[in-house]
Amino acid sequence: MKLHTPSKAACSLGTAAFLLVGTTLLAQQLGNLGDARSGKVPQAVVEMIEAQHILQKQVDDSVSSQLLDEFTKLLDPQKLYFLQSDVEDFKKYRHDLDDLLKSGNIEFALKVYDIFQTRLKQRMDKVHQWIDSDFDFTAEESMVIDAKELPYAASTAELDERWRKRIKYDLLSMKLEKKGDKKKAGGSPQPEADPNAPFDIQEARSRLHKRYKTLFDNYRGTEGEEVAEWYLTSLCMVFDPHTSYMSPRTLKEFDISMRLKLEGIGAALKVEDGYTIVNSIVPGGAAANDGRLKINDKIVGVANGNADFVDTVEMKLTKVVDMIRGKAGTTVRLKVQTADTGEVKVYDIKRAQVELKQQEVKGEILETSSRLPETRAKIGIIRIPSFYRDFQGADNNEENFASTARDVSRELARFKASGGVDAIIIDLRFNGGGALTEAIDVSGLFVNAGPVVQVKTQSGKPKVLSYDENNGDVKTPLIVVTNRLSASASEIFAGVIKDYGRGLVVGDSRTHGKGTVQSVMPVGPKVLPIFNKPQLGAVKLTIQQFYRVNGQSTQKLGVPSDIVLPSLLDHMDLGEEFLDNAMPFDKIEPARHSMYNLSSRDLITSLSDASQKRVEGDTEFQRIQGDIQKYLSRKQRKSISLNEQELRKERVDEEQKTREKAESADDSGDEPVFADNAYNKELLSITLDYLRGLGEKKTARK
User: Fold this and answer.
1) pLDDT tens digits, one per residue of 371-403
2) In angstroms, rounded to a whole number, what is the distance separating the alpha carbons of residues 180 and 319?
3) Burial group, residue 288, by CB count within 10 angstroms (0-12, 13-18, 19+)
4) Helix (H, G, I), strand (E, B) or coil at 513
5) CATH number of the domain at 359-436+443-450+461-514+546-629+662-701, please?
């Protein structure tokens, strides 16, 4: 089957790829900026923002003022390190940062970070003293938890008091943990603990000492080039929350996430107590095929080929990863302290291309009788974790480059080959977005030729992007499942299904609400391919707004569900409207499009009413509703009690959060495609009702 590819103008700008990237701002793996301090990168970033960002704003005194606040908040969001006197000193530069950046000067960022490091060291010295102190958990005192309610501390004594309460809360939280909740490294559960066992204060203190030592070590290993990346990203985020600067290392990680492959040994690593530890091993990767490296092994040295070993103890994780990764076919030597015996061994492992299969589209055919006795239907389930696309592979005309649309098409073909399915469920929960091209192509698998999304650039003139082939599956009833973390490309697809009347959208009250398109543009000569190891990184710029076929933006408002199911996630501050500097909602004229009439208002009302009755009578959903009410009753709190009895009454057990996550079927590779839980059973019940409703409608027409 041929997959639609938009015109070159629609999917690229110079060497950049149009992307609908994730909602949530993850901690970036930072790299060497190279020429950041010499001025090339800061000047180029400023020029690119002014020339290409959709808002067409200049980097001026107003932006300078916001940048100062953004960077300070990025370093100290909870106001636990900087003193008020520090912040007052920073304010002397409030209207100068724009001019300094345009001249290539980022010394302000490095000076601010030096002060942060000093305050961090002062705090950590005190923290370890507080951890070993005795606390009275019966005292009536509380801790402010909303940093917006706090000014910066006027003195070190005031900071001491904030940290004393923070450490007291940490210890009290550990005391209130459900016994046996914690897991061993590697994910295996601990033996069942006695719920009446006394609280081990020494074990709790040991855990806290370890936690804060790790925090300090991570910051201590930060390099000037990394600070520059944070600073330039703070500048970008003044314009909108999805514009950012990516160093070469960050860009490489982004490339891996889109291509779903890398070259290395296929092991995920973490750091504990200064040691690099194997956290997981990718099935089918070089390490898995070799068989010697195990989860929880410590990597204490790395050598390339016959070179001497480099000691990796206390080394920054990103540097260890850089040394282990390398071209497929080359050999890396690992000095490993084994988890089972503590013996130090040397493993020679030949690097290979690692395909991240756990992150790709997965599908299954489910017989409803296996979950809902006395029912009989075949439901095709397709879970889409992200809208990934290997841009370089596509440009090189590689036969099997990574593509969400290709993989969804594969699952649809498998459903057909099995004799067909009665309905299809597309699971977009926790899907933060990806490539615009893939959103268009996946939409085209379920609707015939026609508009998919409208985009508006700096010019303000909307442009319709369409799928131009009539080979989509337009007959099989379709359910699209979303939640508040379904964003961007996910919202385009859900919007198409809703606007065409092609199926139902079920889940949280609405999706995330990200209605902007980003383009990843290399910093430096534009003749370089975007993923051809640019030396100066790239800027992820918001260059377009997108709109549904009906003319409405998804910005802030998202795509509303036809049928809403109870979810704790739906009541958290996770939408676009909660992000700083988010662009406003607006709308344009609708695009003419077909209608499939598979989701009439009367049918939706009937299905929703039936679902609500089932939910009200289900014990698991009753528990979820109880969790929601507890959460809402505490949501507006500005402070939290440090009295053990009071905190025990009001806290949400971690077990409840874990259950809620399972009910929402997150996209972890360890999860089944469609978990067997109350939430998913209700999705199946809605699907069965939908099939009956469509059948009755068809019969009535006859």
Assistant:
1) 999 999 999 999 999 999 998 888 888 888 999
2) 35
3) middle
4) coil
5) 3.90.226.10
